[in-house]
Amino acid sequence: MWRKSSASGVENCVEVSLGRRVLVRDSKVSDGPWMTVSPSVWTSFLASLSRHYAAS
After folding, report:
1. Is 48 helix (H, G, I), strand (E, B) or coil?
2. C-alpha torsion 26→27→30→32, nearest 10
């Protein structure tokens, strides 16, 4: 199941599918390629975003 980011806009659209692996794709190209990362990498990525925007 793909979920679109609530922060996605008209041009910057991201969807993720959470499971044993995290899949990330451009929601404008649903049949296109996607990136696969481990849940721990995804969690680290989200934490780094939180730190970055908290500092802004």
Report:
1. helix
2. -10
Six-digit token string for 4: 């679109």
What would the two tokens of residue 35 be? Answer: 């990136």
Residues in the chain: 56
Query: What is the pTM (predicted TM-score) of this model?
Result: 0.76
Report the C-alpha gap between 4 and 10 in whole angstroms.
12
Are the beta carbons of 38 and 21 closer than 8 angstroms? Answer: yes
Could you give the CA distance from residue 15 to residue 28 in angstroms, rounded to a whole number? 9
Question: What is the tens place of the pLDDT at every residue in 2-54?
Answer: 998 777 777 778 899 999 999 999 988 889 999 999 999 999 999 998 888 88
Q: What is the pLDDT of residue 29?
A: 87
